[in-house]
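re the bet — no i am not wrong, look at it urself. input seq straight from the record:
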Amino acid sequence: MKILVIGSGGREHAIVSALSKSKIFAARDDVKKYLHSAPGNSGIARIAQCHPANINAPDEILALCKKFEIELAIVGPEESLIVGVSDILRDNGIKVLGPGAKGAKLEGSKSFSKQFMVKNGIPTADFDICTTLPQCKEALVKRQRNHPFIIKADGLAAGKGVFLPDSYDEAYDVCSNLLERHFLGDAGHTLVIEDFVEGKELTVLAMTDGENAILLEPSQDHKRVYDGDKGPNTGGMGVYTPVKWADEALLSKIRTQVLTPTLEGLKKEGISYCGIIYLGLMLKPDGELCLLEYNSRFGDPETQAVLPIFNGDFGEAVLSCCNGTLGEYGKNYSLASLSESGKKSSVCVVLTSGGYPGFFAPGKRIEGISEAEEMPGVEIYQAGSKADTEGNIMTSGGRVLSVTAIADDIESARAIAYEAVGKIKFEKMHYRTDIGIY
C-alpha cells in the first residue's frame, strides 16, 4: 500500500515514523518505496519520499496522488482539511484519514464548535459570539466575567488565536486589534469570549471511523512560551504522557459525556467523519468535565509524545479507520492494558527559534541532532528545519525540533529528554525547562 502523509511538521514526522514500523508494509527492507510525504521535511526525507506541493490546493494534491498511485492519505494540517483536501481525494477513490471540510469546521470555526457543543449537551464554558466592539464590551463587562478573560479568534490562527488578558483594558485592546486592526486577518472577524475555567487541563486524541472510536493515551500540553506557564500562548512547547490522574473512570466519563455525544452530533448534522477528534478538556476542581476546544486532526506536539508509545500497530489502526472496521480493530486494542506492567512514558520538549511566537530570524545552523538521536529511547522530530545545499540542517520556522524521550516513568523520560536537548545547539535556541513537571 502506498501512503501519503500531508504536512511538513514534527507531527507529520512522528506519523511517518510510526507508519514505517507497521506490519502493513510487507517489504520491511524497503518501506521508503511505499511511504510518501508532501512536502515533508529533511527528517521525513530519511524514511519517506518527499514531494514539493501546495498542500492547501486540493487539485494539486490529487494530481500528486494519481502520479504516485497513492492509495491512502493522512492529512496532518488543519488548513488542508478545511479547504477540502480530504473531500477531493475520497471523491476519487483514495482512502483518507482526516475529515472533510464540513467535519473540519469543529476546529475551523470556534463559534460553530461552541454552538455544536451546546446543541449536543456537551459540557463547555459559557460564551458569547461577538462581531463588533460594543458586543465585546457587553460580553466582557455586563456578563461580569472574571479575569483572566478568554478571547478566541473564530478562525485558524496557527495556535496564536487564543488570548488570556488579565484586565478589562487589555481584553478590550485584544478585541479592538482583532476586529478593527485585523491582526489575524479573516480569522479574527468573529470572536468567542468565554468564561475562564479553573482546573487541570488534559488532551485526549480519539481515532474514529465515524461509528466507533479508540482513545489514545491522554497527554498534557504546555502552551505558554515560558516556564511556569508564563508569556503568550504558542502552538505547544512540550507535552508528557501518561497523565497519572487520567484513570479509567475519567476516560469512561470522557467517552460518555464528550466523545459519544460528539459522534452522535456529527451524524445528526449529516457529517461523515473519519479521522482524529482532538478533545481539549479541563477537569474542574469539583470533578466535572469541561470541553475547551476541538481539533480535527492530530495535535502538535501531542502526536510526538503519544504515537511512540501507541499500544498497537498504528498502520493497522489507520487502515481500520479508513475501511470503517475500527470496531473490529478495537477489540484487540485496549487502552486499559497500558496500565499494566510494561507501560511506557514519554516526554517531548519543543525547541524553538528565539523570539517565537513573535518575530524570529531563520537560517541558523543546527548541530547535535545525530548525537541526540544516538541516545537510547530518544526520537528527534524535525519541524521548522530544512537542509541547505551542503546538507547542513538549518532553522526555518518557529518550532524547530521536538525532542522526545521514552522510558519506564515520566521522571526518567524527562531526564533523558533534557539530556538529549543538551546535545543540540543553534543560535538563540529557546525551550522550556519544566516540561513534564506536574
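see?? The chain has a mean pLDDT of 94. told u. also The chain has 14 helices and 22 strands. so pay up
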